[in-house]
Amino acid sequence: MMVVDMHVHTNLSSRCSSIQPHELLERALEIGLDAVCVTEHSTYKGAQMMYEIALDRGFKIFRGMEVYTELGDMLVFGWNEHIRYYLFPFKDLKTNVESAGGIIIPAHPCRGWDVRHPHRHSLPEELLSSIVALETHNGASTTKSNNQAELIRRKYGLFGVGGSDAHSVEQLGKCVTIFEDHLESEEDLIQALKSGNYRAAYMDELS
């Protein structure tokens, strides 16, 4: 079993984050995380840098990124690129990620819906045909929007992941994903995400 925070930003590539590499490692070990997915905005560079730093500490970093599209923010694993921070067409993202053998997971898919669209319980068909999982537990979202994401996950038979969306070290590990198997690489991570042998959780539920 592995406890993984699937959605973390650092100050290596995300200007909106204050998390320094040594802080991430120390806090992750302190709270019992087995791995962290570094998902900087629109770039793979920070994740690669964090991966190399963590090697010396024997801690596992999975490399990903968060991409802004017209269908919302997407967590991406398996596509190792640097793009400018702007609206990236979802169709192009899908083409690139699928060609690379990667996976797309909508991040905080219901953030703000509780205010703007309180009764919305659907996703665009273009998105549904391209995903197997949603981020149902996001540490920076309200419980109401997370619950709504969980309802949508169940409605469409999708899998659910959890991530803190941490931009400060105190937020790290608030939401996590529990994998049934031990994962060694991003290839293992992608395969596991497609298989469904995991569940999303709030960290305080595990104590």
How would you briefly describe this protein structure?
The protein is an alpha/beta fold and 207 residues long. It has helices at 21-31, 45-55, 90-99, 113-116, 125-128, 143-156, 186-195; strands spanning 2-8, 35-41, 60-69, 72-77, 103-106, 133-138, 159-163, 175-179, 198-202.
Question: Any descriptors?
Answer:
207 residues, alpha/beta, TIM Barrel, seven-stranded mixed beta sheet, two-stranded parallel ribbon, 7 helices, 31% helix, 27% strand
Query: Residue-averaged pLDDT, rounded?
Result: 92
- From the 3D structure, determine the CATH topology: TIM Barrel
Poorly predicted runs:
none
Strand content: 25-35%
- Number of helical regions: 7
In whole angstroms, the N-to-C terminal distance is 15 Å
Largest sheet: 7 strands, mixed
In spatial order, strands of the major sheet run 5-4-3-2-1-8-9
What structural category arises from helix and sheet content? alpha/beta
CATH level 1 class label: Alpha Beta
Please state the second-level CATH architecture.
Alpha-Beta Barrel
Multimerization state: single chain
Any idea what the CATH superfamily is called? Metal-dependent hydrolases
Q: Roughly how much helix do the residues carry, as a percent range? A: 25-40%
- How does the overall form come out from the CA principal axes? globular
Strand-helix topology:
Layout (H helix, E strand, L loop, with lengths): L1 E7 L12 H11 L3 E7 L3 H11 L4 E10 L2 E6 L12 H10 L3 E4 L6 H4 L8 H4 L4 E6 L4 H14 L2 E5 L11 E5 L6 H10 L2 E5 L5
Parallel strand pairs: 1-2, 2-3, 6-7
Antiparallel strand pairs: 1-8, 3-4, 4-5, 8-9
